[in-house]
Predict the 3D structure of the following.
Amino acid sequence: MIITMANGKGGVGKTLVSLILASALKKSGASVSLSDRDPQRSASGAAEAFELELGEGGDIVIVDTAPWLDHEPTQAGIRDADKVIVVTTPSPSDFARTVHSIKTIGDIRGGVDEVFVAFNRIQNNSFGRDRALLNDAFGCRVFDKCLRSRTAYEQSMLGGWKSLNRVAQNEATELALAILANVSSKKKSSK
Ligand SMILES: Nc1ncnc2c1ncn2[C@@H]1O[C@H](COP(=O)(O)OP(=O)(O)OP(=O)(O)O)[C@@H](O)[C@H]1O
Ligand SMILES: [Mg+2]
């Protein structure tokens, strides 16, 4: 199964969510690898700290992409994925680019059936209230689990999964399980 992280906007947390999600799935017993499609190579640089295999082996491949949706390896990751997770933040300045990215991703895939938004860097308690509105605004489903803004996540780029405190690990695991639950209930694939 291939799960691709995407957004034509830079710095929203695609790489961090790729690493955290791959680690959480691995800790839950899945065989996971990380495919780095971004020439900036941030995921490759942090893979060792997270004790993750780079490449496309195992049952689940998490694909991290570049912030340019006209980039061919990024487009291939979007096209081939069973599930595309559009990582974004609650920052109003990310909103328009995320809406535009979802449209482009829909064009690449021929629809947004298996395209989901995952919120990262949540800072307050308005997430639940805003989520229903955003479902409509984005035109695709928004996960009801999110990652908060935490220094622990930032530091994990060096220290890996084991450097995260229990609260952050649990939060990441909840998002990973929400993604998996959705994957298996919507479409089964041998990819
Ligand atoms: N939930 C979070 N809490 C704290 N810091 C975060 C969080 N998510 C991401 N960051 C930090 O924000 C920065 C950007 O994150 P990241 O590199 O994952 O974004 P990206 O979307 O992959 O960027 P690019 O488009 O350049 O590849 C990094 O320093 C990362 O550690
Ligand atoms: Mg990145």
The two ends are 4 Å apart (CA to CA). The longest strand covers residues 83-88.
